[in-house]
Amino acid sequence: MIKKIDHLGIAVRSLDESVKYYETVLGLKCEHREEVPSQKVRTAFFIVGEVHIELLEPTADDSPVAKFLAKNGEGIHHVAFGTDSVEAQLAQAKGAGAQLIHEKPIEGAGGKLVAFLHPKSTHGVLTELCQPKSGCSCH
Ligand code: ZN
Fold this sequence. Notes:
Layout: E1 2-11, H1 15-24, E2 30-36, E3 41-48, E4 51-58, H2 64-72, E5 75-83, H3 86-95, E6 106-107, E7 113-117, E8 127-131
Bound molecules: zinc ion.
Zinc ion binds next to strand 1 and strand 5.
């Protein structure tokens, strides 16, 4: 079951430049930085109430985020829905005819389990499903 919007993923060319924007223009504070090898990105997180902002800078030319930047430029990359079971949510999405990028959850930032639905089957929004790993009490 989907519980909330967990975070918005935003593709940026430079993590340092965009962190500066969020800190100086919006007055937010970067809470956490992390490299996510499975998605070939470096990330920076801001907490805005219940919702996190996840800035994504590619670490390789074949990173999905590098491809997104080449095609679309900087901007909103994905919307992530928090769920208590990525597996169950994937099964529901598949059953309803959505195209899955990941058939099984993979390891995302913050030690979460994540999986993506293809934007071709989600009316243009790359959709992430994410779930805290069991034992994590921070979410
Ligand atoms: Zn994300």
